[in-house]
């Protein structure tokens, strides 16, 4: 508990996490309002559509999570941390936990905010969250954000440099996973095992088809159902964090 | 008490720290002296468990750093005053440190007061001058009221007032019975601050002794002799086993002998002297000589 409190003080005593959280929420909810305002007969609004741009918020939160690790290396505070808490694993697990919890909260705000603003803009459209698939799509966002944050903290610990870590995370989530699908025949076979595809599968499986946005195109033949996909995504996030912890323990600080 | 036992750090083929063994006693300021790149910082980081030694170990009160429970209560360290997030306030920085070792919030205010930063504790640490940053670092080191303190080049870049403050501060800490290890590349500074010296060069130990002993041993004592009969006196001194060098102006510089001995020889042989004066080398010269590049020299010292 002490270590969690330490990481909480560290995170909230600088401004960048606040900016990242505000940006994540504003960006996603803003995009959702634009979409909602422009839906109509040809492009009907539904619960899934309100959630099409939550990935934007997720990417911003991943940047925040990576920064939580890389700024410590950038400014040498990681050494101050390891002096105060020689058990590096404990200190880094606490950091990952605090960041992940925060990401989870932001994920819920982003999801329900996007849904809420759409409801406000188009009060006549039925946006009630009825089915379990719809609940998973909206409320599941927090879980996806949490795991994405764990993964980003792990990358931050491994790379140690802000520019490198952020570049890897952005290029991977925004481009690599989607573009791999363009490789003939092989592409989709690889894609069905990629982590963020599974994050999408968890949220959108068995739901209304998403016709636009980053959530689209998930017509892959996934090896798991939605919860299996979430477990797979979580396993990758936690696995990468374990690798990062082992590396950090061995490395000179 | 700090003990280094056969501490070695290798980066690929380069040996940064080579089989260092020394102890740092409580109640005294011990200077850790060596030129830049001698391995002082690496050694301190290994003592503090930040860097993993290739072989050997470092113990603090008989335990490796990693096994200390709430280590800030046992060891305080200032390795780099810049290890602070520039957008975090000094108070917040000390608060998380205090929290991590179960120290009360009141202790943060105490150490801020001690180093004179109370008035600026709310300001972001990135805006601090070097002197203020150094004080913040010292506040962090003192947070747990530790018995063992390590400072890496604490006076680097400070103005004379700051240097004096730190010097007196460290001596005060040692006077309270604490173990204080201070690294520096300046012998002149250490001569004023430290009672004991651990001297290293190229990662190897050169000497461990008291400061006065070290300076006496290190500074070359020679006798300057001016005489119209220098050419007669020179061979006489060489016969006695002293080393004699003839300078450009014809004066002799004799090492290994005291001025009394040179005077006696001159008198016994009826040599007229115009000058007979003992010379003392500067601390800097001595230090350069001891830690210079000459590998043979290191070997000689080791005997």
TrEMBL record, chain A:
Pfam families noted in UniProt: ABC2_membrane_4 (PF12730)
PANTHER family according to UniProt: INTEGRAL MEMBRANE PROTEIN-RELATED, MEMBRANE PROTEIN
Protein source organism: Umezawaea tangerina
Protein's recorded name: ABC-2 type transport system permease protein
Residue ranges crossing the lipid bilayer per the database entry: 18-36, 56-75, 96-118, 138-159, 166-187, 230-248
Keyword flag Transport: no
Alphabetically ordered keywords of this record: Membrane, Transmembrane, Transmembrane helix
UniProtKB/TrEMBL annotation, chain B:
Signal peptide: none
SUPFAM superfamilies given in the database record: P-loop containing nucleoside triphosphate hydrolases (SSF52540)
Gene3D superfamilies from the UniProt entry: P-loop containing nucleotide triphosphate hydrolases
A GO molecular-function descriptor: ATP hydrolysis activity
InterPro entries the UniProt entry points to: AAA+_ATPase, ABC_transporter-like_ATP-bd, ABC_transporter-like_CS, P-loop_NTPase
Keywords: ATP-binding, Nucleotide-binding, Transport
Domain ABC transporter: 2-227
Coiled coil start-end: none
Family to which this protein belongs: Belongs to the ABC transporter superfamily.
The protein's name in its UniProt record: ABC-2 type transport system ATP-binding protein
Organism: Umezawaea tangerina
Organism ancestry: Bacteria, Bacillati, Actinomycetota, Actinomycetes, Pseudonocardiales
């Amino acid at each position: 508990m002490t270590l969690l409190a330490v990481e909480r003080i560290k995170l909230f005593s600088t401004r960048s996490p606040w900016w990242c959280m505000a940006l994540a929420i504003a960006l996603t909810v803003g995009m959702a309002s634009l979409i909602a305002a422009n839906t109509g007969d040809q492009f009907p609004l539904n619960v899934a559509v309100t959630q099409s741009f939550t990935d934007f918020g997720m990417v911003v939160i991943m940047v925040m999570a990576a920064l939580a690790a890389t700024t410590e290396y950038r400014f040498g505070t990681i050494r101050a941390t390891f002096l105060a808490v020689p058990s590096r694993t404990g200190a880094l697990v606490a950091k990952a936990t605090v960041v992940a919890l925060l990401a989870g909260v932001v994920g819920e705000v982003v999801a329900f905010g996007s849904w809420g603003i759409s409801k406000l803009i188009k009060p006549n459209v039925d946006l009630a969250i009825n089915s379990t698939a719809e609940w998973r799509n909206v409320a599941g966002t927090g879980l996806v954000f949490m795991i994405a944050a764990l993964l980003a903290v792990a990358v931050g610990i491994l790379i140690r440099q802000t520019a490198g870590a952020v570049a890897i995370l952005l290029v991977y989530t925004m481009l690599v996973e989607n573009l791999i699908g363009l490789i003939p025949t092989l592409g989709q076979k690889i894609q069905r095992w990629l982590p963020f595809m599974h994050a999408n599968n968890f949220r959108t499986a068995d739901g209304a088809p998403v016709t636009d946005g980053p959530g689209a195109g998930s017509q892959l033949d996934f090896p798991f159902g939605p919860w299996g996909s979430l477990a797979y995504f979580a396993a990758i996030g936690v696995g990468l964090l374990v690798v990062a912890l082992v590396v950090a323990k061995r490395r000179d600080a | 008490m700090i003990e280094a036992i056969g501490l070695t750090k290798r980066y690929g083929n380069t040996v940064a720290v080579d089989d260092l063994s020394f102890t740092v006693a409580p109640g005294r300021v011990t200077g850790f002296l060596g030129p830049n790149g001698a391995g002082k910082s690496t050694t301190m980081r290994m003592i503090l468990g930040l860097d993993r030694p290739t072989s050997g170990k470092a113990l603090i009160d008989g335990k490796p750093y990693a096994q200390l429970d709430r280590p800030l209560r046992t060891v305080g360290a200032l390795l780099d005053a810049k290890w602070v997030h520039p957008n975090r306030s000094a108070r917040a920085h000390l608060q998380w440190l205090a929290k991590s070792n179960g120290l009360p919030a009141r202790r943060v205010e105490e150490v801020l007061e001690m180093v004179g930063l109370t008035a600026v504790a709310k300001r972001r640490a990135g805006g601090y001058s070097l002197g203020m940053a150094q004080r913040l670092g010292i506040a962090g080191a003192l947070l747990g009221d530790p018995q063992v303190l390590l400072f890496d080049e604490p006076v680097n870049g400070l103005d004379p007032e700051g240097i004096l403050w730190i010097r007196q501060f460290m001596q005060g800490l040692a006077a309270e019975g604490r173990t204080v290890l201070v690294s520096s590349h300046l012998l002149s500074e250490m001569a004023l601050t430290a009672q004991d010296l651990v001297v290293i060069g190229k990662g190897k130990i050169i000497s461990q002794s008291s400061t006065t002993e070290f300076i006496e041993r290190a500074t070359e004592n020679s006798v300057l002799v001016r005489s119209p009969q220098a050419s007669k006196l020179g061979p006489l001194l060489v016969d006695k086993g002293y080393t004699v060098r003839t300078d450009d102006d014809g004066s002799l510089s004799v090492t290994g002998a005291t001025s009394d001995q040179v005077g006696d020889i001159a008198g016994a042989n009826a040599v007229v002297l115009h000058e007979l004066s003992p010379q003392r080398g500067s601390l800097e010269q001595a230090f350069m000589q001891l830690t210079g590049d000459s590998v043979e020299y290191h070997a000689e010292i080791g005997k």
